Amino acid sequence: MKLLTGNDLPTGDVIWWTGSGWSRHVTDAADVGSEGEALGKLEEAARRVNGPYVIEATLTPDGPRPAHIKDRVRALGPTVRMDLTLAPEASPQVVL
Amino acid sequence: MYQYDTYDQSIVDARVEEFRDQVKRRLAGEITEDQFKPLRLMNGLYLQLHAYMLRVAVPYGTLSGKQMHMLAHVARKYDRGYGHFTTRQNIQFNWIKLDQAPDILAELATVEMHAIQTSGNCIRNISSDQFAGAAADEVTDPRPWAELLRQWSTFHPEFTYLPRKFKIAVIGADEDRAAMRLHDIGIQLLTRDGRLGAKIYVGGGMGRTPFVAPEIKDFVTADDLMSYLEACLRVYNRYGRRDNIYKARIKILIHEIGAAEYARQVEEEFAHVKTLGIDPPLAELERISAFFAPPAFDADAPDTIDRSDPDFAVWVDQNVRPHKQPGYAIVTISLKPTEGIPGDASADQLDVMADLGTRYSFDELRVTHAQNIVLPHVRKADLYAVWQALDAAGLATANLDLIGDIIACPGLDYCALANARSIPVAQKIANRFADLGRQRELGELKLKISGCINACGHHHAGHIGILGVDKKGIENYQLSLGGSGAEDASIAKITGPGFDEDGIVDAVETVTNVYLERREAGERFLDTYRRVGMEPFKVALYG
Question: Which of A39, B161, B394, B534 is most exposed, with minimal Cβ within 10 Å?
């Protein structure tokens, strides 16, 4: 599957396209198929996202999992400060 | 310490308001990200993996207590309660919001701080010796010259759009504590025949093509120094490769045309620049130098240290260095606790260090390129009280220059450019060598880790260097040996195939075991490596 991601303009937060809007949780992300790039341009023009781009992911029982480690770290937060991530109780292995 | 005059303050204040307007226009959609990005970068604001990151300049690594308190305030009010000191003696905040960035800069400006020229293809923050004005081996204090360079390079109209970023270091001692020869320009102040001047090195750097800077000029008198540097920059600005970002640094220009030819062109340009009269009048140099006059040392300060507390004695042996003033010492606060993140300090720790600097070090603190903090002027009689306060704040780790004193870039945990994580590797190595006695048995051993080829973690200059790479989506770590950022500067060599995250920790231990087997009396790791060469290490690592 393909996910559309970027950053929220005023806060810089990592955000994911849900199919109808943006979420800070990758688990809410929707498969954008081949529409991601065009959608990203429209959303960026409306200033609802900054620097949108499309990534590869796989669908797991826990939700979409970005294919590349960099996007997995983006999705959750720094593995060395789990207290600052979106899953403060999780182990860094969840990211990796 | 230098204090802003009305010119300094007004340009910083004006820049804050200019940036406030730029942010407002960006948020209102009046300018695009492509238009805004170079503007925010000129104010130190990056967009990293998780959020905006603000890099605040600490000119030549020097801070007052009030400034350090302000950093704590920024960490607490605008970030997530901590900051990260960098290998360029700056500090970064990792969780900044764009709409709050102008307010942060406005607050910083109230204590004479800013984020100007901490990014972009301009002359970056001038770096220097963290022991400046205190070191027993100092020939002359480099800070007045570093400040002069700061003023010269700030908003220099000709050098705002160089082919690539440009880093300058200035030192005033034979011992190089600033990795001077790994800068675009390295300046070593010295005296010759009673005259102050400088030896000039140009074309050093790390990144994907590391070089130790060759000597370009044996001696430039202080009277000519600024003109000479202007000529160095002009030749680069004219001929540096703007067509290829990977070949745009001055080190590539010098490598391609040769140091001698570059020096010849600089001399030619210098002859012209000297007619322009840009060297400062003596009165201006004296005005700046007056800010760096020695503090009011107590001439009767006792020159002995009560070492009866064994833990304190170990810390003194490891983290305290001689001061030029009898009765005083230089304290380095290690930001490398075993379980910690190299260079990180919490807001509370920043406040503790600020208070200690104010109370015990004439209100001065320094940031080191090794991501530690220095209290430059501490009475020996006060060392025990300082140590106790540091210990209570988790800041008394006695590992300066040992294997636990690891330089590590933020890596893939924070940085958008990184290919692999640096910090977890640093933590695993620090854990493996957690026994301080074992660390001290190994002696001076500088281990440096970068999470990508840009080498912010100085891995090329590590006695042991580690570079994280992306191997088909998996983190992999290359090991290199024999680098140095000191006066014996050298570039480390790769041992062979890389290792996974656990394998690199084992590999480091293997390498230290070879050193222990092979070393001769008095040898550091680097000395043994240079004597025996790579082969025994390779055999131990790969068979």
Answer: B161
Q: Which residues of A touch B27 (CB under 8 A)?
A: 9-10, 47
Residue A81 belongs to a domain: no
Overall pTM > 0.95: yes
Predicted confidence (pLDDT) at residue A90 exceeds the cutoff of 90: no
- From chain A, the residues in CB contact with B421 under 8 A are 73, 79-80
pLDDT in tens, B169-204: 999 999 999 999 999 999 999 999 999 999 999 999
Q: Residues 6 or more apart from A17 whose CB is under 8 A from it?
A: A3, A4, A5, A29, A30, A32, A36, A39, A43, A49
Q: Is residue A86 part of a domain?
A: no
Q: Name the residue in chain A with its Cα closest to that of B341.
A: A80
Give the E-state strand segments of B383-473 in sequence order. 407-408, 447-450, 464-471
Average pLDDT (B222-243) is: 97
Cβ contact (<8 Å) for A12 and B96? yes
Q: CB of A80 within 8 Å of any CB in chain B?
A: yes
Which residues are CB-contacts of B39 (< 8 A; sequence separation ≥ 6)?
B19, B22
**Same domain, yes or no: B100 and B170:** no
ipTM over 0.90: yes
* B384-429 pLDDT per residue, tens: 999 999 999 999 999 999 999 999 999 999 999 999 999 999 999 9
Instruction: Assess whether B205 and B246 both reside in one domain.
Output: yes
Span B29-54, mean pLDDT?
A: 96
- Among B27, B418, B474, select the one facing A10 at the smallest CB separation: B27
How many beta-carbon contacts under 8 Å exist across A and B?
67
Q: Are B169 and B127 spatial neighbours (Cβ–Cβ below 8 Å)?
A: yes
All residues of chain B having their beta carbon less than 8 Å from the beta carbon of residue A10 are 27, 97-99
- Determine, for residues A11 and B49 on separate chains, whether the beta-carbon distance falls below 8 Å: no
Number of domains composing chain B: 4
Q: Which domain holds residue B167?
A: 134-290
